[in-house]
Write a structure and sequence with these properties.
By secondary structure, the chain is an alpha+beta fold. The chain contains 2 helices and 9 strands; from the N terminus they run αββββββββαβ. The longest helix has 20 residues. This is L,D-transpeptidase.
Protein backbone atom coordinates (compact mmCIF):
# COMPACT_ATOMS: atom_id res chain seq x y z
CA UNK A 1 0.00 0.00 0.00
CA UNK A 2 2.87 2.39 0.78
CA UNK A 3 4.27 1.76 -2.71
CA UNK A 4 0.97 2.78 -4.30
CA UNK A 5 0.84 5.92 -2.16
CA UNK A 6 4.39 6.86 -3.12
CA UNK A 7 3.62 6.26 -6.80
CA UNK A 8 0.46 8.39 -6.56
CA UNK A 9 2.37 11.21 -4.86
CA UNK A 10 5.07 11.05 -7.54
CA UNK A 11 2.45 11.21 -10.30
CA UNK A 12 0.69 14.18 -8.67
CA UNK A 13 4.02 15.94 -8.18
CA UNK A 14 4.96 15.40 -11.81
CA UNK A 15 1.61 16.72 -13.05
CA UNK A 16 1.92 19.76 -10.77
CA UNK A 17 5.41 20.37 -12.11
CA UNK A 18 4.21 20.15 -15.71
CA UNK A 19 1.41 22.61 -15.00
CA UNK A 20 3.84 25.10 -13.47
CA UNK A 21 6.74 24.60 -15.89
CA UNK A 22 5.38 27.11 -18.38
CA UNK A 23 3.77 29.49 -15.91
CA UNK A 24 4.50 33.18 -16.69
CA UNK A 25 6.88 33.59 -13.74
CA UNK A 26 9.06 30.63 -14.80
CA UNK A 27 11.37 30.19 -17.78
CA UNK A 28 10.07 28.09 -20.64
CA UNK A 29 11.11 24.41 -20.64
CA UNK A 30 13.64 24.97 -23.41
CA UNK A 31 15.45 27.58 -21.29
CA UNK A 32 15.89 25.25 -18.35
CA UNK A 33 18.99 23.10 -17.79
CA UNK A 34 19.05 19.60 -19.22
CA UNK A 35 18.34 16.57 -17.05
CA UNK A 36 21.91 15.43 -17.29
CA UNK A 37 23.40 18.74 -16.16
CA UNK A 38 22.03 19.07 -12.62
CA UNK A 39 22.96 17.30 -9.42
CA UNK A 40 20.49 14.91 -7.87
CA UNK A 41 18.80 15.98 -4.68
CA UNK A 42 20.78 14.93 -1.64
CA UNK A 43 23.81 13.98 -3.71
CA UNK A 44 25.99 17.10 -3.80
CA UNK A 45 28.62 16.97 -6.48
CA UNK A 46 27.15 13.85 -8.06
CA UNK A 47 25.50 14.01 -11.48
CA UNK A 48 21.77 13.70 -11.14
CA UNK A 49 18.39 13.74 -12.73
CA UNK A 50 18.00 17.51 -12.71
CA UNK A 51 14.89 19.55 -12.11
CA UNK A 52 13.25 19.57 -15.53
CA UNK A 53 10.73 16.86 -14.62
CA UNK A 54 12.85 13.91 -15.68
CA UNK A 55 13.76 13.00 -12.10
CA UNK A 56 10.15 11.88 -11.71
CA UNK A 57 10.39 9.67 -14.77
CA UNK A 58 9.92 6.29 -13.17
CA UNK A 59 12.37 3.47 -13.59
CA UNK A 60 10.71 0.87 -15.84
CA UNK A 61 8.77 -1.87 -14.06
CA UNK A 62 10.34 -5.33 -13.86
CA UNK A 63 13.83 -3.85 -14.13
CA UNK A 64 15.30 -5.63 -11.15
CA UNK A 65 16.28 -4.21 -7.79
CA UNK A 66 19.26 -2.69 -6.07
CA UNK A 67 22.00 -0.64 -7.64
CA UNK A 68 21.90 -1.08 -11.41
CA UNK A 69 21.91 0.48 -14.85
CA UNK A 70 18.58 0.12 -16.66
CA UNK A 71 18.47 0.40 -20.45
CA UNK A 72 15.07 0.60 -22.12
CA UNK A 73 15.19 -0.41 -25.77
CA UNK A 74 11.80 1.14 -26.55
CA UNK A 75 12.38 4.40 -24.70
CA UNK A 76 16.01 4.70 -25.84
CA UNK A 77 16.80 5.76 -22.29
CA UNK A 78 19.16 4.80 -19.49
CA UNK A 79 18.60 5.10 -15.74
CA UNK A 80 21.38 4.92 -13.16
CA UNK A 81 19.59 3.48 -10.13
CA UNK A 82 21.05 3.65 -6.62
CA UNK A 83 20.72 1.09 -3.85
CA UNK A 84 17.72 3.06 -2.56
CA UNK A 85 15.84 2.27 -5.80
CA UNK A 86 15.90 5.93 -6.83
CA UNK A 87 17.39 6.99 -10.15
CA UNK A 88 20.37 9.30 -9.67
CA UNK A 89 20.36 10.13 -13.38
CA UNK A 90 18.36 9.35 -16.50
CA UNK A 91 19.13 10.30 -20.08
CA UNK A 92 18.38 9.47 -23.70
CA UNK A 93 20.77 7.44 -25.83
CA UNK A 94 21.26 6.63 -29.49
CA UNK A 95 20.92 2.85 -29.79
CA UNK A 96 23.24 0.59 -31.74
CA UNK A 97 22.08 -1.38 -34.78
CA UNK A 98 22.49 -4.64 -32.87
CA UNK A 99 20.47 -4.70 -29.65
CA UNK A 100 20.91 -6.96 -26.66
CA UNK A 101 17.90 -9.09 -25.78
CA UNK A 102 16.04 -8.03 -22.63
CA UNK A 103 17.61 -9.56 -19.54
CA UNK A 104 20.12 -9.07 -16.78
CA UNK A 105 23.82 -8.61 -17.50
CA UNK A 106 26.91 -7.31 -15.72
CA UNK A 107 29.66 -4.95 -16.82
CA UNK A 108 32.39 -7.17 -18.25
CA UNK A 109 34.95 -4.55 -19.27
CA UNK A 110 35.62 -0.84 -19.36
CA UNK A 111 37.94 1.10 -21.63
CA UNK A 112 38.56 4.81 -21.21
CA UNK A 113 39.50 5.57 -24.86
CA UNK A 114 39.10 3.33 -27.91
CA UNK A 115 37.69 3.29 -31.43
CA UNK A 116 34.07 2.13 -31.62
CA UNK A 117 32.77 -0.62 -33.90
CA UNK A 118 31.63 2.14 -36.27
CA UNK A 119 35.16 3.59 -36.52
CA UNK A 120 34.40 6.63 -34.33
CA UNK A 121 36.80 7.51 -31.49
CA UNK A 122 34.92 6.95 -28.22
CA UNK A 123 35.49 7.34 -24.50
CA UNK A 124 34.06 5.73 -21.39
CA UNK A 125 33.20 2.43 -23.04
CA UNK A 126 31.27 0.17 -20.65
CA UNK A 127 30.74 -3.28 -22.19
CA UNK A 128 28.19 -5.78 -20.89
CA UNK A 129 27.54 -8.44 -23.56
CA UNK A 130 27.94 -9.48 -27.19
CA UNK A 131 25.36 -10.58 -29.73
CA UNK A 132 26.40 -12.68 -32.71
CA UNK A 133 30.00 -11.48 -32.38
CA UNK A 134 29.08 -7.78 -31.96
CA UNK A 135 30.24 -6.29 -28.64
CA UNK A 136 27.47 -4.32 -26.91
CA UNK A 137 28.16 -1.46 -24.55
CA UNK A 138 27.61 2.16 -23.63
CA UNK A 139 29.97 4.90 -24.76
CA UNK A 140 30.30 8.53 -25.80
CA UNK A 141 31.85 9.82 -29.01
CA UNK A 142 34.88 12.00 -28.29
CA UNK A 143 33.48 14.63 -30.67
CA UNK A 144 30.27 14.72 -28.62
CA UNK A 145 28.02 13.51 -31.44
CA UNK A 146 25.15 11.08 -30.90
CA UNK A 147 23.90 10.43 -34.45
CA UNK A 148 21.65 7.52 -35.29
CA UNK A 149 23.66 4.39 -36.09
CA UNK A 150 24.08 3.54 -39.76
CA UNK A 151 21.61 0.69 -40.39
CA UNK A 152 24.03 -0.76 -42.95
CA UNK A 153 26.62 -1.43 -40.22
CA UNK A 154 26.45 -4.00 -37.42
CA UNK A 155 27.42 -1.91 -34.40
CA UNK A 156 27.05 -2.38 -30.67
CA UNK A 157 27.73 1.11 -29.35
CA UNK A 158 24.85 2.63 -27.37
CA UNK A 159 25.85 6.30 -27.53
CA UNK A 160 25.29 9.00 -24.95
CA UNK A 161 26.48 12.58 -24.63
CA UNK A 162 29.99 12.99 -23.23
CA UNK A 163 28.55 14.23 -19.93
CA UNK A 164 26.17 11.27 -19.60
CA UNK A 165 28.90 8.86 -20.69
CA UNK A 166 31.18 10.19 -17.95
CA UNK A 167 28.40 9.76 -15.36
CA UNK A 168 27.85 6.14 -16.43
CA UNK A 169 31.62 5.56 -16.30
CA UNK A 170 31.70 6.75 -12.68
CA UNK A 171 28.62 4.69 -11.76
CA UNK A 172 29.20 1.36 -13.54
CA UNK A 173 32.33 -0.41 -12.42
CA UNK A 174 33.18 -3.97 -13.49
CA UNK A 175 30.46 -6.33 -12.28
CA UNK A 176 27.74 -3.64 -11.99
CA UNK A 177 24.32 -5.01 -12.89
CA UNK A 178 22.86 -3.93 -16.27
CA UNK A 179 19.18 -4.63 -16.88
CA UNK A 180 17.81 -4.37 -20.43
CA UNK A 181 14.05 -4.01 -20.81
CA UNK A 182 11.81 -3.71 -23.88
Amino acid sequence: MAGLTAAALAAVGFLAYQASATAPDRPAQKDRPSASASPAPGKPGKPGAGDDGKRTQAVPPRSGSGERVVYSLGDRRVWLVGEDERPTRTYEVSPSTVSPPPGEYAVTSRTENITGSDGVPIEHSVVFTSVDGVVIGFSAAVDGSTPAADPEQRTGGIRASREDGAALWEFAEAGTKIVVVD
